[in-house]
Amino acid sequence: MAVVTRSQARANARHRTRTHAASLKSDQHKRVVRAKTWKAPVRTVKHDPAQLLGPDLLGAIFSHLEAETLRNCVEVSRQWHAVAKQDYLWRPLCEDLWNGKVFVPQRQQASSASFKQRYLASTTAATKASLTAEELCAFTWNFRFKRTAGAYCMSYDPFWTKTGPMMQRHFHADRSVTGSPRTHPFWMPEYECTWRFTKYREGKAGHYVKVNYWPALGISRTPGWGWRMENCWVVYEADLQLGGPLANGLPAPAPAAVSATAVASAVGSALEGGAASAAVAGTSA
């Protein structure tokens, strides 16, 4: 029988410990590898709900959805798209969206545009913090001073004194600005006011309106989709009313009138052309 010394016993014990630790580490590594490579079984939907329910029942379900969810349904499949884009689903959503809004050009949008397109166009337009020249000139603007303008200005402002209707301003296509009532001491009829668009205010890029040399007016939207312009001293707000003449947007531009001079010129050109043709025909004969 072999005699195992104490040092050999210690060496054997250390060897067994290392072997056991290596085995545990190997098993742990295998479990990690298996966990990383394991994939959940893919469950495929054998039947599209649109095929099982039919378009009518699916549309009835879609009628309870919010606009954003209904918009996502359009992207699911062709069958869902065909149902989710229907006007009968988007019309009530448009009516809810437009309720209480003072300026909604999409109400009178061409009939070729679906209510889904009108809804999306409305949500985009409602956040547009800029004005076209046509919009600026079409609106009547209620005007008032801010407290920062000082007590003197506030003492003459009907908004603060509660002595009458607010002052109003009108922007015109010739770049002039007029006001009403004309007799108000702050209007100063002999003083010329002009407006222009500018892209910067105090070094900040954006879309602004500048009247004379005064600080540029920043443009924003009101909760009712109206328009507001303001600087450090004054506030302009478009005088738009629910159901008012501009509630459905700006009126369509009138067709350009043809001047009498243009008509006479066209007739003269036609007569000259006819005479020249006759002369050529006579020469050929």
Automatic annotation (TrEMBL):
Sequence ranges assigned to domain F-box in this UniProt record: 56-94
Region Disordered: start-end pairs: 1-30
InterPro entries, per the entry: F-box-like_dom_sf, F-box_dom
UniProt xrefs under Pfam families: F-box-like
PANTHER family according to UniProt: F-BOX DOMAIN CONTAINING PROTEIN (PTHR48218), OS07G0170800 PROTEIN (PTHR48218:SF3)
Listed name of the protein: F-box domain-containing protein
Organism for this UniProt entry: [Myrmecia] bisecta
